[in-house]
Amino acid sequence: MESSLVKENPLLLPLNKDKTVYDGFITVQERDFRMRILLPPDRQLTRARLHCCSRLKHLLRGHEHIVKQRLQQSADLVSFVLELKTVLEVCLKSSPDCRSIPPPQYYSQLISEMETLGWGKLLFIDTEFQILKLKAEDSSGRQHILTIKLKSKHPAEAPECSADLPVPLALTWTLQSTLDQLHSQFLLVLESLTEFWDVLDEIDGKTWILEPEKPSRSDTMRRIAIGNNVSIKVEVDPRHPKMLPECCLLGAEHAVTPLRNKLNANMHLWNPDSSVLHNLRDVLEIEFPSPATHEKSWLRALPSSRQSFSIVFGECPYCSKPITVKMAAHKS
């Protein structure tokens, strides 16, 4: 038994002549764990005691009853250590803090791929060298981030990829794929969405956006202020951004009805070659208010507003949220 135990666990050795005390390390998934096994004089496992290092205790937390059961049921010490290793393998797989360390070739492969891609595209890499954030720029100069989570068997396993997009990110991966090829695929996805972002950037830059307060690249909806406590919510299709979007007019019925009638009557005038904003102006026969940041005079004219020195305080008539604007000092 002793020879078999040492053969399977060369770092776990007997400390006395009677071989009732074993101390050392057991290796599971390329990780070493310190432990000591104390056997009674008759060497019966049912009365054996097990002392573990802090890492091993932490890993086995919640599984102590299983270890005790294996200790009671194992025929000999060799069988018990084998059972203990099996339990540890299960614990390691389910513990995010104790994942197996990738082999050396993983790191050499990663460095080689990054050199091909270019280190200038790397924005972030975690201490485990498994989560990367790569920057990318579309043809309109917008900056984007591709987050890649590599598996320990990279490149044999496909990585998990995510980005701030209005559509699901579907990138292909084969055994021959590289990070450079993945980045190139991402650029093609960005180009397919360029027109969508151009449409929304124009709306964001030339109208007063009520919702969302801080639009992200994945947002497809905009709620735009019109005036007289009326707004319009538009949902732009990322795949067909210049087609008539889903529209919903919000506000008092007497103020919304004329606009709804114009929308229904002029819907046939929608020109898919023009931008959404240009079409909305033509179809609704209106001019949209400028962005709120440029409406100092409008805010000051509200009955509910007040001014203290160079700061104007007021309340948004659309969402009732407080607005504060600092007035620029007039030069003499």
TrEMBL record:
Domain (Fanconi anemia complex subunit FancL WD-repeat containing) ranges: 3-89
Pfam families linked to this entry: FANCL_C (PF11793), FANCL_d1 (PF09765), FANCL_d2 (PF18890), FANCL_d3 (PF18891)
Domain FANCL C-terminal per the UniProt entry, residue ranges: 297-328
- GO molecular function terms listed in the Swiss-Prot or TrEMBL record: ubiquitin protein ligase activity
Q: InterPro entries, alphabetically?
A: Fancl, FANCL_C, FANCL_d2, FANCL_d3, FANCL_d3_sf, FancL_WD-rpt_cont_dom, UBQ-conjugating_enzyme/RWD, Znf_RING/FYVE/PHD
Q: Where is the signal peptide?
A: none
Got a GO cellular component term for this one? Answer: Fanconi anaemia nuclear complex
Q: Name one GO biological process term.
A: interstrand cross-link repair
Coiled-coil spans in chain:
none
Q: Which domain of life is it from?
A: Eukaryota
- Where does the record place the FANCL UBC-like domain? 104-193, 195-291
Q: Which PANTHER family match?
A: E3 UBIQUITIN-PROTEIN LIGASE FANCL, UBIQUITIN LIGASE PROTEIN PHF9 FANCONI ANEMIA GROUP L PROTEIN
User: What's the name of the protein?
Assistant: E3 ubiquitin-protein ligase FANCL
Q: Which organism is it from?
A: Larimichthys crocea
